[in-house]
Amino acid sequence: SQQGEEDPQALSIQEGENATMNCSYKTSINNLQWYRQNSGRGLVHLILIRSNEREKHSGRLRVTLDTSKKSSSLLITASRAADTASYFCATDGGGGKLIFGQGTELSVKP
Amino acid sequence: GAVVSQHPSWVICKSGTSVKIECRSLDFQATTMFWYRQFPKQSLMLMATSNEGSKATYEQGVEKDKFLINHASLTLSTLTVTSAHPEDSSFYICSASYLAGGPGRPRTDTQYFGPGTRLTVL
User: Fold this and answer.
1) Residue B107 above 90 pLDDT?
2) Nearest to B117 by CA among B3, B1, B23, B2
3) B17 and chain A: CB distance < 8 Å anywhere?
4) How far apart, in whole angstroms, are the C-alpha atoms of residue B20 and residue B11?
């Protein structure tokens, strides 16, 4: 079953702008991960944030986690056309399983 | 490192036939592999968890007799869609994870995804 809800479902921005995607989940977690999927392709792991972390950076990516609100956000700064993809959050479902959110479809226009 | 491949990348078959999809971890031993299905514009839905040498654990609502999963080695898992029907047309993605970590090894709490297999049943 799906646990994560993401918003917005779709986001269209201009190159150079920042993109923020949000994810909410329902149960307690050990960690939360963000993945990117280019159209018709597999998923690429972006970043993992553990439940005892509040913020994490990786290049142009910044992820925050608020366990009290059961929510996370992914910020992509200075977006590029190549960032166009769908972005999914995923929480651990026990036994190594991942429970994915509905995803945000990001379109970065050059 | 941590490369997962899938074969075939796409397949078209007639209704009633069976289709086998392979998932391989190329540079690490995957103690656990996962199979997902993704319909257009939707998220990934976990179908089953496959541990090497044991029977797969299927998610609720997934027919184990229709989606046969075999994980015979630490680098290979197969998904066979039996008696495929048009409603089985979907994007099937596998992922692999590695139990024990260590320097140079994939993280244990990260799944590495294959590129997916597009199945079209006519």
Assistant:
1) no
2) B23
3) no
4) 10
Q: What is the number of CB-based contacts under 8 A between chain A and chain B?
A: 60
Of residues A1, A45, A97, nearest to B34 (C-beta): A97
**Which residues touch A29 (CB under 8 Å, ≥6 apart)?**
A51, A67, A91, A92
Residue contact B97–A96, C-beta within 8 A: yes
Phi, psi of A32 (to 5 degrees): -135, 140
The reported pLDDT for the residue numbered A2 is 46
Contact B84, B75 (CB under 8 A): no
pLDDT one-digit tens code per residue, A29-50:
989 999 999 988 889 999 999 9
Task: Say yes or no for a CB contact (<8 Å) between B43 and A44.
Answer: no
Strands (E) in B1-122, as ranges, are 4-7, 10-13, 19-25, 32-38, 44-51, 57-58, 67-73, 76-81, 90-97, 112-113, 117-121
**Residues of chain A neighbouring B42 (CB-CB closer than 8 A):** 102-103
- Give contacts of B 57-76 with A, CB under 8 A: 57, 60
Length of chain A: 110
